[in-house]
Amino acid sequence: MSQEKVDKRKYEKQHRKEIEKKNKIKRNVSVVAIIVVLLAIIATPFGYSIYKSNQKDKESQALYQDFLEQLATYSATDTEDASEDDSDTEDTSEDNTDTTDAE
User: Fold this and answer.
1) What value, to the nearest 5°, has the Cα angle with vertex 91 and ends 90 and 96?
2) Could you give the residue ranges of the DSSP H alpha helices within 1-103?
3) Which long-range contacts (CB under 8 A, 24 or more apart) does 85-94 make?
4) Interval 11-54: pLDDT, tens
5) Residues with Cβ within 8 Å of residue 12, at least 6 apart in sequence
6) What is the pTM of this model?
7) Span 74-88, pLDDT tens digits
8) How far is the C-alpha of 59 from the C-alpha of 13, rounded, in Å?
9) In whole angstroms, what is the distance from residue 84 CA to residue 78 CA?
10) I need a labelling partner for 11 at 20 to 30 A (CA). Which of 5, 29, 83, 99 fits?
């Protein structure tokens, strides 16, 4: 063997623990990176579907609120019409009593 190879093997033998530690760190970092990428790939469609369903819920909730507002407006209009009809009836009854008193 050439002197270069001998020196390299000697260095590797002396620093084996540090070299193994660095290799473990590199391996762990690459595993974590792969897991993160896979989770991102898997979670993206689920997140998008949840987002879409949430948007549909917001739209339906907005439609429901509009319906309730229209219903309240309709009810208020009916109440006003009914009170106007009642006041007209009361006015005519008062007019009748006035004419009865005049006789």
Assistant:
1) 95
2) 3-14, 16-102
3) none
4) 999 999 999 999 999 999 999 999 999 999 998 888 888 877 77
5) 19
6) 0.45
7) 777 766 666 665 555
8) 68
9) 10
10) 29
